Amino acid sequence: MRKTVRIVGLCLLVSFVFFPDLPAGSQDRVGKSVAAPGEDSGYRLRADHFSYDERQNIYTATGNVTLHAPGRVITADEIRLDALTREAILEGDIRIEQGDDWLEGERAFLDLEEQTGVIEYGRGFLAEGNFHFSGAIIEKLGPQTYHVEQAKFTTCDGDRPSWHFRTSDLKVTVEGYGFARHARFHAGPVPVLYTPYLAFPAKTKRQTGLLPPRLGRGDRLGWDVDLPFFWAISRSTDATVYSHYMSKRGLMVGPQFRYAASKENKGVLRFDYLHDQEDRDELREQNFYTLPGLTRATRDRWWWRSKQDIALPHGIQGNMDLDIVSDPDYLQTFSTGFSSWTESDRIFRKTFDRGLINDDTITTRQSNLLLNKTWAAQAANFELHYYQNLNDDEDETTLQQLPLVTYSASKQSLLGGPFFWQSNAVYVDYWRPEGTRGHRVNLEPRLSLPLRRGGYLELEPFVGILETAYLIEHYDEPEDSRVREKTFQNRALVETGVDASTEIVGIFSMGGDPWTKTKHTVRPQIGYEYRPEVSQNKLPSYDSTDRVNSRNRITYSLINFFSARLDQAPGEVEYHDFARLEFSQFYDVSQPDGGEEDTSTSRDRPFSNVFTQIDFTPKRYVNFTYKNGFSPYDTDFKSHELLAHLWDQRGDNLTVDYRRQLDDDYNTIVNEIGVQLKLNLWEGVSANVRSDYDLKRTRNIKSEYNIMLQRQCWGISASYVDDPGADDRRVALGISLYGVGELEAQTYSSSD
């Protein structure tokens, strides 16, 4: 009642806006359009009838009244304007439009300069978020803030929304938050939920505040709630603090900091810390560590991971990836929620197009620093590689590359003559507390002479040097005790060979529209490479570069390329490479009888498997790559790889990833298949299935199932995940009220 008295009082004390001067004596006019003095005032009033009270300086317009104000259009049956205060009283069939936003009502008081006012029995629409609201009294407190009494609001269109809230009091700020008291949630016309207080985001831009929480329960964590707080520091920086409370573990706190000074200079840094309250007796009973050396003796558990792109002067580009964790079981234990490995990997891939280097099952975490400088035909890299081995028995012997420096020069003319040269140079400092450590320099210059004979045959003989030098600082238990702590070793060899190729091209008319022609290119290739055998017994063994196999090999291949010419419109021609087919094999002449002995059959096998690869990439509906290896001796396939992707116009898609590999005794090494299927069952209903299966061991690797129902203003999803590797199964149900927020409940279970 007091609110109504206040509004009536305001309406009696003030009356509406601008237009300071009608001509003297113009007390009553019919059918006029009146503008404020000055060409750029921005105000114009149209109505069927005007009157002017010179004493009170009030203008009254009635009948089809339209007021054009800066950025706004106001219509009503009657408008009374105060030229001094620029306030207005509106009566009957009121509509106020500002861009795509609007307000309607029966009676209103407005301050056009401050963009504030009161509307009785009004309703409104905010385009940002598709927010519909109505109430007995609507107060516009500023350009973007509204207060509504006896409110009803929803983001659904139509007179009968699928859901809405009714509240005794509502305050909402565009690009901010909405706050409601005594809120009742209605599904259709039926009230189903009451809360004395409701807060929800009402924004599309970054803004400081709480983000939607996640709730869950699990055998290893107990009841848990994950509540993030977002801080919009500036346009280019923000921070998020994740508070994850677990009834069996305690409170995990994890800040995330992001910055983006430019496209080439940005970063995401994440850290989580937990003083683990897990019962020690339960910990001893659980057998999480099946390998020797994998232990956890601390309650202080943490994980640092970050990625940064760095832009330095003189065109130097860099990136730094850090991944350091407190113990081997951390990533497996905390495998869900905002701070999980999956969520961190998703954020990194979205921001940098590169994810975490090692998955959550790998007990060696890798951190890198890379600085790169490129020129027209040369490049140089400076790298640091640190490997955190979480196995205590192996940590002291794990090799670190501190630093690794590379220089490469691509193939280019030598002094403008017929010869071409290219080169690679690598320096590495291999360091570790225990075991052989030292420095290595590897040089690989190569000289070639491209020749073309008869316009159809391409020949390219080449010769290269492989020079590797070592400065060994410490040996791991040298056989000869007289070997000094620091010693120099080297290996030098020359490799040579020749490559030959030609091309045969055929163009075929298709007579289609738009596919008019097909180009088929056949490229036969043959090459010979020779690398002598050298003694390498005294060299350390850091990685594969330290052992170079001899080679006396002939390699040959046949590659087919298929291209389509598409005449899209007169003068518009597009070429599309839609298929590639390759066959390749090599013949090893390094053994006297033509090849290495096959210990499984006691027969020499100089011929390698025949390798086939098919790439099929039409413009629509399907693309796939298939590879296999066929043994000419066993007349059977030794390997298969298939990656296929199919989709349709509805948005359904299917991805199949299959791998199988056999050894020479036909023992299966790998036999796995992965399938991902998305089906749009009907409008607004979709299902997703993803499953990875080990055919060799006949067991599930990981499976995910999800079904989602989406409507214009709401959605509901149900999902199930079975992850035997993490000993984790979980069911989740999510409800989304678009424009208001999301509610997600999850349950977790395991066999522990």
Characterization of this structure:
It is built from 4 helices and 46 strands. By secondary structure, the protein is mainly beta. Among the domains are: 2-204, lipopolysaccharide transport protein A fold (Sandwich), CATH 2.60.450; 206-368, no CATH class. A hairpin with a 2-residue loop joins strand 5 and strand 6 (72-82). It is elongated and about 115 Å long. The protein starts with a helix and ends with a strand.
Primary descriptors:
single chain, disordered C terminus, 46 strands, disordered N terminus, mainly beta, 14-stranded antiparallel sheet, lipopolysaccharide transport protein A fold
Q: What's the total count of β strands?
A: 46
Q: Show unreliable segments.
A: 1-27, 36-40, 287-291, 592-602, 743-752
Annotated CATH architecture of the domain at 2-204 = Sandwich
Number of discrete helical segments: 4
Instruction: Look at the structure and give the CATH class of the domain at 2-204.
Output: Mainly Beta
CATH fold description of the domain at 2-204? lipopolysaccharide transport protein A fold
Radius of gyration: 37 Å
Characterize the main sheet. 30 strands, antiparallel
Average pLDDT reading: 83
> Into which percent range does the helicity of residues fall?
under 10%
Q: What gross morphology would you assign?
A: elongated
End-to-end span in angstroms?
63 Å
Which superfamily, in CATH terms, is the homologous superfamily of the domain at 2-204? Lipopolysaccharide (LPS) transport protein A like domain
Approximate strand percentage:
over 45%
**Helix/strand/pairing class, anyone?**
mainly beta
